[in-house]
C-alpha cells in the first residue's frame, strides 16, 4: 500500500469516527433528558451511561487516530514550523529524522503532562453535593 493510500484510509477513518462522535454527542445532548433524570430512558437498548461510555471510547479512538495522523505528517509539520514560524529558509528547515523524532516525543510528553495536570486539578477541586 502506498503512503498516499495509507493517508487516505487514515483521513477517511478520521472523518467517519468524527461524524460518529458528533452523532453520539448530539444524542446525549438533545435526545436524552438531562443526565440527572435520564434513569430508565433507553435508545436502541442502551441507557444514558452506555451512550456516554461509547462517546468516551470514540473520543479515545479519535485521539489515537489523530496521533497517528500527525505521526504520518511529522516531517511536514516540522518543515512548516521551521519555515513559517521560525522564518528559516527551506534549506535550513531540514531536520534529520533523529531530531524530528526527539521534537515529536518532546511535544507528546508536554501534551500528555498538560492533560494530566488539568485532569489532576479537576480531580482535586471537584466538589461533592452538600450533605442533607
Give an overview of the whole structure.
The chain is mostly helical and 132 residues long. It folds into two domains: 1-72; 75-127. Helices cover 72% and strands 0% of the residues. The protein is built from four helices and no strands. It has helices spanning 3-31, 48-72, 74-85, 97-125. Helix 1 packs antiparallel against helix 2 (48-72). It starts with a helix and ends in a 7-residue tail after the last helix.
Defining traits:
132 residues, single chain, mainly alpha
Overall residue-averaged pLDDT value: 87
The H-and-E topology, N to C, reads as HHHH
Rg (CA only): 21 Å
Beta-strand residue percentage: under 5%
Total tally of structural domains:
2
N-to-C terminal Cα separation, in Å? 63 Å
Q: State the assembly state of the protein chains.
A: single chain
Q: Which parts are unreliable, with pLDDT below 50 for 5 consecutive residues or more?
A: none
Q: Quick one: biggest sheet?
A: none
* DSSP summary, beta strand count: 0
State the helical fraction: over 70%
- The computed structural class is mainly alpha
- How many helical stretches? 4
Q: Choose one word for the global shape.
A: flat
Q: Gist?
A:
The chain has helices spanning 3-31, 48-72, 74-85, 97-125.
Break the fold down into its secondary structure elements and pairings.
Layout: H1 3-31, H2 48-72, H3 74-85, H4 97-125
Helix pairs in contact: 1-2
